[in-house]
Amino acid sequence: ILPAFSGIAMHDGWKPYDVFTDCRHVLCHAHLLRDLQGIIDSTGQKWAQQMQGFLTQALHLKKQYKGILQKVEQENLVTIYQSILKENQVYSSKPKKKGKQTPAQNLWNRFVKYDDRILA
């Protein structure tokens, strides 16, 4: 199905999906919220708590505006998202360690790298 699909593909961010270039990729907020909760439960990291609150707020706004947010609301959400990442910068200044990264590092990198897919 996906090789010929040209719409919006919402998924969990599994890397093999990226080979399908005719569609627009969007990351599923339910998966992100689940992953954030896992980081909160295991590490209590502040950025994960803030991002979880942000995504919850964004989903409420989307429902309130029936999926069509005004430009000012969209810009406000982008500003909040960027400020959470900027204020916390958990892993951005640290060089990549040899070996496997932690789940928190992987999730942080996903929020930094795929902001366009998360804020879609």
In short:
This is Transposase. InterPro entries: Transposase-related (IPR052344), Transposase_IS66_central (IPR004291). The chain is mainly α and 120 residues long.
Question: How would you characterize this protein structure?
Answer:
The two termini are 22 Å apart. The chain has 5 helices and 2 strands. It has helices at residues 29-43, 46-64, 71-88, 103-113, 115-118, and strands spanning 8-11, 24-27. The chain has 120 residues and is mainly alpha-helical. It has a two-stranded parallel sheet with strand order 1-2. Helix 1 runs antiparallel to helix 2 (46-64) and helix 2 (46-64) packs antiparallel against helix 3. The mean pLDDT is 88. The longest helix has 19 residues, at 46-64. The protein has a domain at 34-115.
> Sheet bearing the most strands, described?
2 strands, parallel
Overall strand count: 2
Into which percentage range does the β-strand content fall? 5-15%
User: How far from one another are the termini?
Assistant: 22 Å
**Succession of helices and strands:** EEHHHHH
Shape: globular
The strand order across the widest sheet is: 1-2
Helix/strand structural class: mainly alpha
Helical proportion, percent range: 55-70%
Number of helices: 5
Mean pLDDT over all positions: 88
> Stretches where pLDDT falls below 50 for ≥5 residues?
none
Radius of gyration: 15 Å
